[in-house]
Design brief:
alpha+beta; Beta-Lactamase; 645 residues; 18 helices; elongated; five-stranded antiparallel beta sheet; 5 domains; 13% strand
């Protein structure tokens, strides 16, 4: 019921009304109330067989609307109605009464016989129901003519009762049609007219178009107004209010006035519709103009093709690329335009066909040979569909990516050269650092031996200078070790696993407490979020940051080191904060560079490679590293590790 149209609802009501009326008149004989069911005393009541036929016809209306797939039941109803109508009609011709009446109990037989015009209309109704929704155009047209003809005959009979003209419903000396029968025929044929939604008549009156709205408004007016005015005119004449000529004049004037009002009202409605349509058309034209301006000013080639891959629209860029105007494109295929490039055209048309056949959007990389050379295009192609979802065309947007491809190739070449250069540099750095360790160990060893042998024979200045040599050599050894570590970080691959950073920190603190006597440190370590990372390299990161925190809090009154961690949607953020000396943020850009130190050696020892190593490791993990500080108020070092590596 939710999706049922208004016309279907009216047809259902007509069906129920006809069935109820037929049942009342048929069983009214049994209950003894049939005389009270006659609207006007003195007129012939509805025949009992006619009542049964109306019950069957009302049921057929309901079946047509509910679309119950029972064609055989419709055929049975049509045959039942047509057969009884023919038998009743034969009585008026042969004089033998052989209708269903003879099979009914005496109490259910009506006193009157079925009228010949009633029989003709029942035959018409049976034929209409039998062929109403056949697909053949000729049959549908014939049925529509029969339907309109039968409807006007039943209207003619009803007007006879209204205007008291017996010849309208009484044929010769035969049984006249009953008033209630003529009314039920009007309801029946009206319902049948609405039941055929695909008829030409219904196509004229349904929908929201101006013609349909005016048709629905005019048809009841044109039918009911003359009937009402005619009855009023006759009523006035019979009552002696005016004579025949006056009645005719009043009738004509009323019809003219009513029709004039209706015409003016509909003209105003049409005028409003025309204004809205004109406004809408202007908006469409303006929208099309703007869209065309956007399309024509696009640097990408934009084009439309029909299902046979013929061009139906091209923009300025497409025309410029190929040196052709729009007229030369329209109605042609690529094969027609570029027969000299069959292989390339075959590829393009295969792409177009894939989009049309699948009704899906695709992206292709296509090569075109244009007058100025070979170009590479990234083509986005998608189907265009109508309101029913059926594909009727294909749209393509091809963007020239020739320069981008060349840039990508140059970038790839430069990256390859850079990687080779970095590899060579790292190999050189590793080799040099490794080769320097042996002579450096000799210098340190011989220096210490020289000090032991000659300590009694050297003065203080000589001993100081010898100590400087040993200290510098030891520092250089640490520097070489750090360089080797820095180089190793870049050379080794990442072995990513699920990592608990708290375990690394606990291990560092335990070793520090076992091996250090330089004062008590307050360690505040939170529970850190786990991360997916290389355990060896993250240990280097934490060792460097924690060692720096220990080193730079050595001179603080209260030594506090805090390690915290937080989670966000995309990454984990870790922080190592100390209460040490801090640094000058004006030089923060040097903090993570190789050999860059913000403090003198006599203040705090270091090689200037530790934080550079930290940054390199975090970058390899696709994380970030930064620092915050105030001079004399400690420092905070932050690094991130992304989730879902």
């Amino acid at each position: 019921m939710k999706d049922r149209s208004r016309s279907d609802t009216v047809v259902l009501l007509c069906g129920y009304l006809i069935i109820i009326t037929g049942i009342l008149f048929f069983f009214g004989l049994l209950l003894g109330i049939a005389p009270f069911l006659n609207v006007l005393p003195g007129y012939v009541p509805m025949n009992s067989v006619t009542a049964l036929c109306f019950i069957a016809l009302g049921l057929s209306l309901i079946l047509l609307v509910l679309k119950i797939p029972n064609r055989s039941l419709i055929i049975m109803i049509s045959v039942f109605v047509i057969l009884n109508a023919f038998l009743a009609l034969s009585y008026h011709i042969t004089g033998e009464y052989t209708t269903l009446d003879v099979l009914l109990p005496q109490i259910l037989r009506s006193s009157s016989k079925m009228a010949p015009n009633t029989a003709v209309l029942l035959i018409a109704a049976g034929v209409i129901i039998l062929f109403l929704k056949r697909p053949e155009p000729l049959i549908r047209n014939v049925i529509q003519y029969i339907l309109f003809g039968a409807g006007f005959i039943s209207l003619f009979a009803s007007l006879g009762f209204l205007y008291r003209i017996s010849s309208f419903y009484h044929v010769g000396n035969y049984t006249p049609m009953a008033l209630n029968t003529s009314v039920m025929f009007l309801v029946l044929f009206g319902g049948l007219m609405l039941a055929d939604n695909q008829s030409k008549f219904m196509e004229l009156v349904k929908g929201s178009s101006p013609s349909a709205v005016i048709s629905r408004r005019m048809i009841p007016f044109v039918i009911l107004l003359p009937i009402l005015l005619g009855w009023l005119r006759i009523f006035g004449e019979n009552a002696g209010l005016y004579g025949y000529s006056t009645g005719v004049a009043i009738f004509v004037i009323c019809v003219i006035v009513a029709l004039f009002i209706m015409v003016v009202y509909n003209a105003a409605h049409l005028k409003k519709e025309e204004y809205e349509k004109s406004k809408y058309e202007k908006e469409i034209i303006e929208s099309e103009r703007k869209l065309r301006a956007v399309i024509d000013n696009s640097t990408s080639a934009i084009y439309l093709k029909d299902l046979n891959r013929r061009f139906i629209m091209v923009n300025k860029a497409t025309q410029k690329n190929h040196g052709l105007n729009e007229k030369e494109f329209l109605g042609k295929t690529l094969t027609d335009l570029f027969p000299q490039h069959p292989e390339a055209v075959k590829v393009y048309e295969e792409h177009d066909r894939a989009v049309i056949d699948s009704a899906q959007a695709y992206e292709f990389e296509e090569t075109a040979l244009l007058p100025d050379g070979i170009h590479i295009y990234l083509s986005q192609k998608f189907p265009l569909t109508d309101i029913n979802g059926k594909v009727y065309a294909m749209c393509g947007i091809s963007t020239d990516i020739t320069e981008r491809k060349k840039t990508e190739e140059r970038t790839a070449t430069l990256n390859k050269l850079l990687q080779e250069s970095n590899s060579e540099l790292e190999s050189f750095s590793y080799s040099v650092s490794h080769d320097l360790r042996a002579p450096l160990r000799h210098i340190i060893g011989f220096g210490e031996k020289l000090k032991r042998i000659s300590e009694e024979h050297l003065n203080n200045e000589e001993l100081r200078l010898l100590g400087k040599i040993n200290t510098s050599a030891a520092k250089m050894g640490r520097l070489i070790d750090d360089l080797l570590m820095f180089s190793r970080v870049g050379r080794t691959g990442l072995s990513v696993t699920r990592l608990e950073l708290n375990n690394i920190i606990d291990e560092y603190i335990s070793e520090y407490l076992n091996n250090s006597n330089d004062g008590e440190i307050q360690w505040n370590v939170e529970r850190l979020p786990a991360a997916d990372a290389d355990p060896f390299q993250i240990k280097i990161v934490l060792d460097n940051l924690l060692s720096n925190a220990v080193k730079y809090t050595a001179k603080a009154d209260k030594r506090v080191i805090e390690i915290t961690g937080t989670e966000s949607v995309e990454e984990n953020i870790y922080t190592v904060k100390d209460s040490g000396c801090g640094f000058d943020t004006d030089y923060i850009d040097k903090l993570f560079g190789v050999f860059q130190r913000l403090h003198r050696d006599d203040e705090y020892e270091g090689t200037g490679i530790g934080l550079a190593t930290v940054k390199r490791i975090i970058n390899r993990h696709n994380g970030r590293v930064w620092a915050e500080s105030r001079q004399g108020e400690g420092a905070s070092f932050h690094f991130t590790l992304p989730k879902n590596r």
